[in-house]
């Protein structure tokens, strides 16, 4: 009798262990990594408390955050509130919601201003977008709707894209109209607004921007130029150049990451297969150019001193998050698996001691590159790397629980 009981207990233990192992898939324990993020967030909160500014970066030789004031010209101010909302989504702890609310509300002055540039999408949708998704607070909804209308004022119908940087027209560098690849991400706020009581034209603007960008902003192989310059009289594409990459002809890694994430999202919103095929094209080029058995790229795939060039962890985080969505949208099961496996490998590598900051700094990740040509934020911890890392972990948790990565996103 005793032996039978022992065998039953053993059998139950084996079943339990195999089920819980399934939840973590190929060695990535999302619960563990998400609690690591929570701990780092608490360290950051103690460090920055009372300053009413947002953590932006920790440079290679530093151990504490450099903070930025809430200004329309500071493109990354929405990431810290967004990180806090993802943390709350995981912990469901009301204190975590309170602190996320506090930092989100600090951004309110931004939406009373005319459009400074396309980054309004990053600023408002990463913060208020997540805030509304998780709380349903109508005040947040109205703020996003207003911001979407403001962003749309930068759309040029002759060209068919949003003007990303008005200041670069004023100074004559990327005149008379410029669009940068990063701008793809800001279309999400326009799609959202069109579905949530905003002007339906916002959908058309976002889709036209994605179509024009797809037509002109890439080389034959699917590699992006960072910046596309257009003529405002004829609407013609004038040239593709770089701003943050090594050279006009090279593949700036984060530009390609924005394209992967952006076209997956545009396909989700439009259900137009041409965008799915294009998301595959930009992804397949990216994956084919990764170093063998490595998942965090160098900052530019064509930088001249590879392998002695800095890596860019932010790129791997953005791509991992984008690919988790793309794998769920795929109509080709083999590609779905390939993209999911690649995303998991990226997250495993980012979660290693090589890329996590751990005790050394209160960020989640080390080793991102902000702007190599300006020699700024080279090999730094940067807030957007952390934002897309925690987003990807939350998405991965949803994938493993069999739910959509954009659950709750209406
Ligand atoms: N959006 C600016 C960057 O990716 O650095």
UniProtKB/TrEMBL annotation:
GO MF term list: chondroitin hydrolase activity
Pfam families registered for this protein in UniProt: Glyco_hydro_88
UniProt binding sites for substrate: 119, 182, 240, 242, 254, 258
Single Gene Ontology BP annotation: polysaccharide catabolic process
Hydrolase among keywords: yes
KW Amino-acid biosynthesis (keyword) present: no
Family stated for the protein in its record: Belongs to the glycosyl hydrolase 88 family.
Official protein name in the record: Unsaturated chondroitin disaccharide hydrolase
Species: Dysgonomonas macrotermitis
